[in-house]
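Incident log, structure service

09:12 report received: a user says their structure output differs between two submissions of the same chain.
09:20 pulled the input from the user's history:
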Amino acid sequence: MESKRLLSCCSENSRREAMEKYYTIQPYLIDGVSIKEISSIKNVSKRTLHYWVKQYQTHGLIGLITKPRSDKGTIRVDDLIRNEIEQIYLLNKRLTVTSVHRQATSFCLEKKLKVPSYYQVSSIIKAIPTSLTKLAHEGERSFQNKYDLVHRTEASKPNEIWQADHTLLDIEILTENNEVIRPWLTIILDDYSRAIAGYYLSPQAPSAIQTSLSLHQAIWNKNRADWQICGIPEKFYTDHGSDFTSNHLEQVAVDLKIHLIFSSVGVPRGRGKIERFFNTINQLFLQDLPGYTKNHSTNNLLSFQELDLKFTDFIINIYHQRVHGTTKEAPINRWNKSGFLPNLPESMEQLDLLLLTVAKVRIVQRDGIHFNGFRYINAHLSAYVGEAVLIRYDPRDLAEIRIFYQDHFLCTAIAPDLSDFTVNLKDIVEARKKHYEELKSSGFSNQTITDHIVQKKQEDIVATEQKSTRNKTKLRRYHNE
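09:34 re-ran on a clean worker, output below:
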């Protein structure tokens, strides 16, 4: 815990510099690339690389946070002149130092700046990384062929590599406001078994919170015999989407000892497996449902909840049980037969602190914590009245919140009026809207926002029970408790 507290106290710049050092030594830690080869490619001394490796293995990410070098910037040239020299050299292929010095001299005379010496120009050019020079002079493909460290993306066991991606589903569904939308799907797939470790279905475009929630579900034990996939993966392979490359997710990966691997922009090496799964969704699932876009049918569109239930059923009872064309085994059987024990976080609270990025600071009141118009209570809060605490919550269920004090899990608090139901942000927004409309039309409403939510949930339960008599199903959408 000490290293985590120290890490959280460091500035964002310090953590970013530490991450850059980690990415430099990552090929050595993961793929066994030699220090000598990394030194040649990254233009970092072998002694420095050995020191970074030792620091990371001993102290974790905090070991890579160091003070800046005192001798940095010994070439005393104005930044404007330095930038101009670098631009001249990089934008003009095979330009000699003499030519660069001559053009830099003309620039300085025009701007009435001090003219740099030939030695200073030469030193600035030599300081430009050879990889950057190759990229500027020979193009991206030539750069990738020489400097890209190719990672092996074929797993030899479960949880060795997980892949993640998003897709806009080829189906139209109805929202509760009768709006027609196409939902987004976030998928986490185990590379070895091709089984689905976790997913998140959302009406909104991909974001960091959706990625975090799907990873949260994928890692934690689902407590069901028909979906046993869980654990911390060794490698997490994604594209360069902003939600995958967020600073928060990168720091979480390093803290959990997950090695993030990003596909090259425009060169999605190894991502064909998850793209084939998206094709499977169209062929075996979506095309038989109302609203499938390629059928051009808008009759009897599904609701979001109906699609969610059907997709869970498809994953567990169809996709996981079907023999895969490449592995020649059913995904769930291939994952289960290894008999290994997944590496899990120490507790659900530790996972929540890392991955549930929706967090707010609140002051503990004498009657509990007030948030989003509701009151959350727990007996443990009585000792913290007047204290500022951090609350974290899953936007899919606001009936309970998790409370942290000074980076330690304190307790889970519930909203008594909502404790019997699963309530998400969408429910709250709709209840507030209905309440406002009633007040606006009549000037008085005998129902509170809580009453609206409870009434809506009770109506949903009755509707579900009536529907179940016509179409029996015991499968429910999994929520991490």
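09:41 both user submissions now match this output. Likely a transient worker issue. Closing.
09:42 reviewer note: Confidence is low (pLDDT under 50) at residues 1-6, 472-481. Residues 193 and 453 are 41 Å apart (CA to CA).
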